[in-house]
Design brief:
This protein is an alpha/beta fold. It has 14 helices and 14 strands. α4 packs across α11 and α5 runs parallel beside α11. The structure holds 4'-deoxy-4'-aminopyridoxal-5'-phosphate.
Amino acid sequence: MTRESDAGFESESESESEVEFDFEPSERVQAVPPSGIRRFFEIAEERDEVISLGVGEPDFAAPWAARDAAITSLEQGKTSYTANRGMRELREAIADYADDRFDLDYDPGEEIIVTAGASEAVDLAFRAFVDPGDTVAVAQPSYISYEPGVIFAGGEVLPVPTYREDDFRLTVDALEAAGADEADLLVLCYPNNPTGAIMRETDLEPIAEFAREHDLLVLSDEIYAELTYDGDGEHTSIATLEGMRERTVVFNGFSKAHAMTGLRLGYALAPADAVGAMNKIHQYAMLSAPTTAQHAALEALDSCGDEVRDMVDQYDRRRQFVLSRFREIGMDVFEARGAFYCFPEVPEGWTSEEFAEELLREQGVAVVPGDVFGTGGEGHLRVSYATGLADLREALGRIEAFVDEHAEGSEG
Ligand code: PMP
C-alpha cells in the first residue's frame, strides 16, 4: 500500500519539499529479506583482478546462427508482439525438441507457453497455483528465486533438506520428516543449482509415488537438463514417470544450454488447464515473450545442437578439473554430475560466509556461500565452472594458497 503524508496535497511549488509520499512495500515484499550477496559485489568492486566463480550464467556467447536469426528478424521488421503463448512455429519446435531429447510429449497448441526466461514461467506457476496460506515444499539447497516467488504469491515455503550422504538427491525420508505430505506443491530442481546433483529415474520413482499418494502438484525446474554428465549423459524428467504428466509443470529455457541468458526466453510444459491458468496471468503481465529472442530460439533449436554439445563437453572437462583440484587441495567435494556448479565443503572452523568473504578479500576469488541457498547449504560453497579453464586454473591455485595459508596459521 502507498500512503500520503499528513501534509496532504500542496500547491506545485511547495509540493516538492513538503509532500512526502511513502512507498511502503506490501507485506509480501517486506517479508522477503534483501539478498545477502550484495555485500560480496561491494568487496569485489574494491579489488583488482577478481576471478568470479560466483555467476550462474554461461561464459559463452549464444551460438552464432541464433544471433544471426535474431538480426535477420530485426532486418525484416519483425518487431511486433507474437501470440501470447509464443510463436506457433517456436512452440512446435519446442514440442519436437522436448520429445526428442527427454521423451516429453506436449501439444504445441495448448500445452506449451513461451515466457520471458524460465524465471517468468516459475513465477507464473506460483501465482497460478498457490493460494494464500498454501504450503510449497522446496527441496533445498535450491535456487534462490523459489522462496521469494512463493512468498510473493502468498504461500509458505516448507524446506525439505537434501544431504551430502545422498549426493544431494531428494528422498522420501526427507519429505516425510519435513511433513511434506501436508504440502500442496513440491518444487524440484534437477540438475540442481547450487549443488550440481542429478536425480536418475530410480531416484525419482519414489518421489513420484509420494507426490501421487499425497496429491501434490509438482513444479520441476529442468533448465539444466542438457547439462547432465553422467554415464550415458541422459536426463530424466519426473513428468515422464507414470501418473506424473497430469500433475507436473516442467520448466526449461534457452539461458543455460544455449547460452542465451540476456535474450530472456524460457517455457513451461504442462497439461492444457495448467498452461491456460498460467497464460491468464502472462497475457496481462507480459503479453508475449520478446519477439527477437523467439526468432533466435527457433534457430537455436533448428540448427545449434552441435554447439550445445560442444559447450556441454567443455563444461564436463572443466567439471572434472575443478573436482580433482578441490580434492587435491583437501576440500571435500561430492561428484556433481549436472548444471555447471560444484559444492565443496568449507574447511573446519569456517562458516561459508566467512570463508567466501575472506577468500574474496585476500585472494580475489568470488564464490557464493552455501547458506544463501537455504537449508543444508551452510558449510558449503557454490563454485561455478561456467568460466574458461585458464581462469579456473588460476582461481583454484589461489584457493589452494588461501587454504594452505590458513591451515599453517592454525597450526602455528
Ligand atoms: N532456474 C534455475 C535453477 C536457474 O539457475 C536459473 C538461472 N540462474 C533460472 C531458473 C532462471 O533462468 P532464466 O534465465 O531462463 O530466467
